[in-house]
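User: Hi! I'm working on a homework problem where we have to compare a predicted structure to a textbook description. Could you give me the structure for the chain below?
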Amino acid sequence: METLSRFTELKRKNPELSIHAFNLVARVAAYDSDAEDPDYWASYGRKIWRYACLTDKAERGEADEAERGECAALRREIPDGVLADFLARRAVDRAVNLACVDLVRDGVFDVLTVPKDDTAEYGYAALDQMAIAKRVRELRLPDRVLVYPGADEVGSVLFARVFNQIKNYRPRIYIRYSSVYGPFIVPRYEDRPLQEGIKAQITSLGGVVLDAPGDSDCMLAVNSPGKHMIESVEQYTKDLTFSTHLNLNELFRYMHYYHEEYGRPVGLAEVSVANGCENDCMELGLLTGTYDYLTAVGGWNTAQNTIGVVLAQLVIASYYNGFCGRPAVGGVHGEPSCQRLAVSIQCAAQVPCGDCGHGGPLCAWAALQGCGGIFQARAASASGREVYGRDTRPPSHCGHAAIPVGRNLLHPAACPAGRSAPRRRY
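Assistant: Happy to help. Predicted structure tokens:
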């Protein structure tokens, strides 16, 4: 805990400093691979994951006879040394999280965010959350310790939260799904319905959910599963529910309506599949010219990884009237061309540039505010990548200066000549 003690010293020397901290509830990968886990995970990873789930379920009194028998069998198959090492690692992670909660109590941390990496309803992550929740209740800190699914997006969400606090801005977000079942589906690698995860992200960054689109500052469009989530690599054999239980045409038409009717930023979270994008959704966006006016697009990793990054981009855009450097006036937000940069697309989709409309493979994590803001992106085109270090030259597609945010700023390279598909607008 020596590292944590440094935060106490930092706060002592800088009492006015506001610290928004995060740790995470470590994941338990549900597969046999040691790529990101200890060596023994290649042989016992899935067995440990399953054993953890059944152990938790049995301790809650919810396991049936077959599950209790399976749990006992798995315990015999997992070597004692392997399980002991795994449990020791879990103990360290839990101790650090509980110590962080204590730092909130002591006034060192203003807010502690604890995302749950690759989690599930049962298992050691759930047991760790119970321990954290118990400490939070004892210390009466429910509004200052936030625990919800996610991990990779947390930096973006905390940045948006601090931004909103500095600007005294509480973004009002309207959510629209492609499926009526979408809000209730529990995504892969998460422990709660999709809508609850989204509400947790919005709460974390300081916003509120609104049911009335006309009163909102921005819109989050969610392409959700119609019945159940699959891996992106499984979409080529997806079942009929991806057509019968959701309506992409209606979602995209409403995005266009919201953009035209209210003139406020729109972000798209593609979370119908895990670890990638659903091709039909991305193709429809190309055919309808939707990416020309979207503020943020995401589709990668887990649902909350995608949603957190898209929301962070979206709410900052809503404050800046579309990243033109002017706070919103009267609740109406403009739509300059400089906001037309797709965010966090981690797939081989053909995503068009904002002004020219030409297609080009794009892989981006970006936050862009045109006149006085941030630009950070990874982009690839047919002509390769252009890398700028501490560059203040404007992106060619909008003419607004990009303020440097680090050593390497990657500007979108030139678009290939010609479009990849004809455009149709709703």
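For your comparison, note the following. The chain is about 35% helix and 15% strand. The radius of gyration is 23 Å. Good luck with the assignment!
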